[in-house]
Specification:
Blueprint: E1 3-7, H1 15-22, H2 27-53, H3 64-114, H4 127-138, H5 146-156, H6 160-171, H7 179-192, E2 209-213
Helix pairs in contact: 1-2, 1-6, 2-3, 3-5, 3-6, 4-5, 6-7
C-alpha cells in the first residue's frame, strides 16, 4: 500500500523538513515525523499571524473560537516540536548521510530507466557497486563499503524521490511548485520499472510514500 501525504500551499515551503522526516529508519516513524512537520508548519503560520495582527487579537469576541482552538491544540504542537528535535538529532547523527547515499543510488536508477538501460541494483557491476566505487574514489563516508550502501538503499529506497526532486529543482532553479510533480514522476518510474531480466521493480510499492499537492479551495 502506498502511503499518500497531502501537502498544502504553506507546506510547500517546508519540503526540506519533510525530507528530514523521511530520514527516520522505518515507515511508521517517518509518518509520525511527517505529522510533526505539519504541526511545526501550523506553529510557524500562527507566529507569523500574531506578528502581523498583534498579540491582543484573541481578546476580540469574533476571534474567540480561533483563540480556543489555538489554546486546545497548543500541547500537540509543543509535543511535535520536541519529537522533531529528536528527529533532527538522528538526522545529524548519521541518517542524513545514509539518506544521501540512497538518493544517489536512486538517481542512478532513475537515469538508467530514463536511458532505457535498466541496470541492476545489486549485480556485480550494478548501481550499488557504482556508488561504492564513487564513494571510495571520493572518500565519501558511508559510501565506501558495499554492504553499507546496500543497507542504506534498502532502508530508504521508498522515499528517495523527494530529496532527488529537491536537488534537481535546486540545480535547475525551478520553483517549489515543481518539486512534488517531479518527485511523483520519479516515484512512479522507480516503482513501475524493473532491472533487466528481473520481475521486481526497483522500489516495492509497500515501502513508498507519495506526496501530492493539495490546492486551495
Amino acid at each position: 500500500m502506498i502511503h499518500t501525504i497531502s501537502v498544502n500551499h504553506e507546506e510547500l515551503f517546508f519540503l526540506e523538513l519533510f525530507r528530514v522526516a523521511l530520514s527516520e529508519d522505518n515507515i511508521e516513524d517517518r509518518l509520525t515525523a511527517i505529522q510533526c512537520v505539519k504541526h511545526d508548519v501550523v506553529a510557524n503560520q500562527i507566529e507569523l499571524f500574531e506578528e502581523r495582527v498583534g498579540r491582543g487579537w484573541g481578546k476580540a469576541p469574533e476571534n474567540a473560537d480561533f483563540a480556543e482552538w489555538m489554546r486546545s491544540t497548543s500541547p500537540k504542537r509543543h509535543e511535535a516540536l520536541y519529537a522533531l528535535t529528536r528527529v533532527f538529532d538522528r538526522y545529524d547523527g548519521g541518517n542524513e548521510r545514509r539518506l544521501n547515499v540512497a538518493e544517489h543510488v536512486g538517481l542512478l536508477a532513475y537515469l538508467s530507466i530514463h536511458d532505457g538501460k535498466l541496470k541492476g541494483v545489486q549485480t556485480p557491476s550494478g548501481l550499488i557497486h557504482q556508488v561504492t566505487e564513487i564513494g571510495r574514489n571520493s572518500g565519501t563516508h558511508g559510501a565506501r563499503d558495499h554492504d553499507t550502501v546496500r543497507k542504506s538503499w534498502q532502508t530508504y529506497r521508498g522515499v528517495v524521490h523527494l530529496g532527488m526532486a529537491l536537488d534537481i529543482c535546486e540545480q535547475q532553479s525551478l520553483p517549489a511548485t515543481n518539486v512534488l510533480p517531479l518527485a511523483e514522476e520519479i516515484r512512479q518510474a522507480l516503482s513501475e520499472n524493473c532491472p533487466k531480466n528481473t520481475k521486481d521493480p526497483y522500489v516495492p510499492t509497500a515501502e513508498q510514500i507519495s506526496f501530492v499537492f493539495e490546492p486551495m479551495t
